[in-house]
């Protein structure tokens, strides 16, 4: 693996999941870490935003400076899924998102990953679509709103949650329809 800046940012995103989960769930489990416990939701939100911004930065830097690597192609989407799925699983634990929505979102990710694996075996790269990118952004906004846990924004949070769910389903269907030929036997 080349230690390029984009690859370092991807690894940082994975590493940031640990303090994110420990602070968020630890504080709500009753551990008293003083200031950290009192502001756990907002500290976790800040960590999530920083980690999400590394996703934006690593891709732009890699493309701009021709630093695209096999490690980055492999690890970047995994890091994204680990971050968002970890956050949503924590939010289930805190009672802020229904588990059935998270199951649908995670099932979509497994399905697309399986499709990409089959396509890769056939020498094809399946690029992310506008629907997939919109899905990712909406999920990240949803997680941010749920982490902030501001009662005045509860209606907006619920709307964003259902928009993220709809975009998850639409992006899955779009992906399957456009790439179904990958599943045909030779």
What is the class in the CATH system?
Mainly Alpha
| Relative helix content | over 70%
The quaternary state of the protein chains shown equals single chain
Globular, elongated, flat, extended or rod-shaped: what is the shape?
globular
Sketch the topology as an H/E string, one letter per element: HHHHHHH
Q: Any low-confidence stretches, pLDDT <50, length ≥5?
A: none
Q: Report the sheet with the most strands, covering strand number, pairing sense and barrel closure.
A: none
Mean pLDDT level: 92
Terminal-residue CA separation: 34 Å
Number of strand elements: 0
Would you identify the CATH H-level superfamily? CDP-alcohol phosphotransferase transmembrane (TM) domain
Strand-residue fraction? under 5%
Number of domains: 1
CATH architecture: Up-down Bundle
Provide the structure class.
mainly alpha
């Amino acid at each position: 693996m080349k230690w390029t800046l984009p690859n370092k940012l991807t690894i940082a995103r994975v590493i940031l999941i640990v303090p994110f989960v420990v602070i968020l769930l630890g504080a709500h489990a009753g551990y008293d870490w003083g200031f950290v416990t009192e502001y756990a939701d907002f500290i976790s939100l800040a960590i999530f935003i920083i980690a999400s911004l590394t996703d934006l930065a690593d891709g732009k830097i890699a493309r701009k400076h021709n630093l695209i690597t096999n490690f980055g192609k492999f690890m970047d989407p995994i890091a994204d899924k680990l971050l968002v799925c970890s956050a949503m699983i924590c939010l289930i634990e805190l009672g802020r998102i229904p588990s059935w929505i998270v199951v649908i979102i995670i099932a979509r990710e497994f399905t697309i990953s399986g499709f990409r694996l089959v396509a890769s075996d056939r020498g094809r790269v399946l690029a992310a679509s506008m629907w997939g990118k919109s899905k990712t952004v909406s999920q990240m906004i949803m997680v941010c709103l749920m982490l902030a846990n501001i009662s005045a924004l509860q209606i907006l949070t619920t709307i964003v949650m259902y928009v993220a769910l709809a975009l998850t389903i639409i992006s899955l269907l779009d992906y399957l329809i456009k790439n179904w030929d990958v599943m045909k036997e030779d």
